[in-house]
Design a protein that fits this description.
With 439 residues, the protein is of the alpha/beta class. 47% of the residues lie in helices and 10% in strands.
Length: 439
């Protein structure tokens, strides 16, 4: 810290002690906000911002975290005496994701173990790839939204088809907007509007040289990038010291969306696969939901039945918890479809419609809705214009909605002939069948 100005060093040490204590006690950002009575922005900037927080804010955080305020106030005085006034505006593109982060962390439970593993990796290794993989609706985005909410110093971008705007404006799925957003956060000297080629060179450079301070970048839903292979040449197999990149993507069966960005499982240092939620997570969600759900968390039979009906599907569980809080879900109608389910599935259908822009896409999806599972050879024979030459190009554009199953059998050579395809989630398939009028 010898080369750091006195005021900056004192502020950095003050913030480090507060963050370390928060992590030591396992206090989430939302809980810290409630304990202090301070807003999210105030707490976030106090822990990570470039400016000195008020003395009252430091006192409030010390009390909430059960820290002796004396040493903290000594550091605060040092920073204040040094006239610490460094100004750094929040990148405008990050603000785009505020609504997404809020919505995905309002009812979020059951992933504390994964969160702990990611943070332990960051502290222990400080370099490398983390990859979070799960079926659609299993909480990848919620996990990463919770991660950046608790650690606002992380750089992040959410490649969200659901937040894609029609017409002009910021598009979180566009390669140019993704790179603009990340470069703006990673490079203080970034100049907006340089164009895609320049952004690619800048981002590639940022990913291959050690950052000045330890840096964590969170990039959610790499499978939703449009086109999905746009990052192929931009990510090195090994990241430089001090840089951690947390990625997420939909599970695609025996295929990985890492293929699209030219990475493999051997390049990933921590690979997390999210499973369905257990009954303990359902209890926590019901408690968080509050309202008419109060008391249902203590009914073991109700929780067990809710888990049986949902099979632990996180998106389905969340909708049921919301219905329970509103008094719509009771012990007598657990099997009823939750209120928010149809709107969610309609959103998935709209995203599928955006991706399926070729005639071949429509035919492939139609046959899979009818049959359930088909081999690549079946699709060659059924879909006009689909050949071994264009199969990879066409299927890549809808891969995130499909699962790939690679069969092994005596005499069956590995390759395209050994692959079978089905929908990524049976709930999606059943709903899409009903919308398509298939009995």
């Amino acid at each position: 810290m010898e080369d750091i100005p006195h005021g900056d060093a004192a502020l950095a040490e003050l913030q480090k002690r507060l963050r370390d204590r928060r992590d030591e006690r396992g206090v989430k950002m939302i809980a810290l906000e409630r304990l202090t009575g301070l807003g999210h922005t105030t707490v976030s900037k106090a822990l990570n911002g470039p400016n000195l927080p008020t003395r009252a804010t430091v006192m409030g955080l010390a009390k909430a975290l059960r820290l002796d305020p004396g040493p903290l106030l000594d550091l605060w005085e040092q920073a204040a005496e040094a006239g610490h006034r460094k100004v750094q505006e929040e990148p405008a593109t990050r603000d785009f994701f505020r609504d997404l982060i809020e919505k995905h962390t309002q009812l979020f439970a059951g992933r504390q173990g994964e969160n702990v593993r990611i943070m332990e990796f960051i502290r222990a290794r400080a370099s490398g790839y983390v990859f979070v993989e799960a079926l659609s609706g299993y909480g990848k985005t919620s996990l990463l939204a919770d991660l950046v909410r608790q650690n606002p110093e992380f750089r992040y971008h959410f490649i969200s088809q659901a937040y894609r705007r029609r017409g002009g404006g910021f598009d979180p799925t566009s390669p140019e907007d993704v790179l603009e957003c990340l470069c703006e956060q990673l490079d203080p000297g970034h100049v907006r509007g340089a164009g895609l080629k320049s952004l690619e060179r800048q981002f590639r450079d940022l990913m291959t040289r050690p950052p000045r301070t330890p840096t964590v970048v969170v990039l959610d839903a790499v499978d939703e990038l449009d086109p999905p292979d746009q990052l192929r040449t931009l990510l090195p197999r090994r990241l430089p010291p001090g840089l951690v990149l947390v990625l997420s993507g939909r599970a695609q069966g025996d295929r990985s969306c890492l293929d699209d960005i030219a990475l493999s499982s051997t390049d990933v240092d921590l690979h997390l696969r999210l499973e369905g939620l257990d009954e303990a997570a359902l209890v926590e969600l019901l408690r968080m939901a509050g309202g008419a759900a109060t008391g249902l968390d203590e009914d073991a039979d109700f929780v067990a039945e809710m888990h049986r009906v949902t099979a632990g599907d996180p998106f389905y569980v969340r909708f049921l918890a919301e219905d329970a809080a509103a008094g719509v879900l009771t012990r007598d109608n657990v099997e009823h479809a939750p209120t928010g389910l149809e709107a969610y599935l309609d959103q998935q259908l709209e995203q599928l419609n955006r991706s399926a822009h070729r005639t071949e896409h429509v035919e492939i999806l139609g046959f899979l809705l009818e049959a359930g599972t088909l081999s690549a050879m079946d699709l060659y024979n059924l879909v006009e214009g689909l050949t071994w030459l264009n199969f990879d190009t066409i299927i890549r554009e809808i891969h995130r909605f499909l699962l790939v199953h690679r069969r092994t059998a005596p005499g069956l050579a590995p390759g395209r002939a050994a692959e079978e395809y089905s929908f990524c989630h049976d709930r999606f398939r059943q709903y899409f069948r009903s919308r398509a009028g298939i009995g």
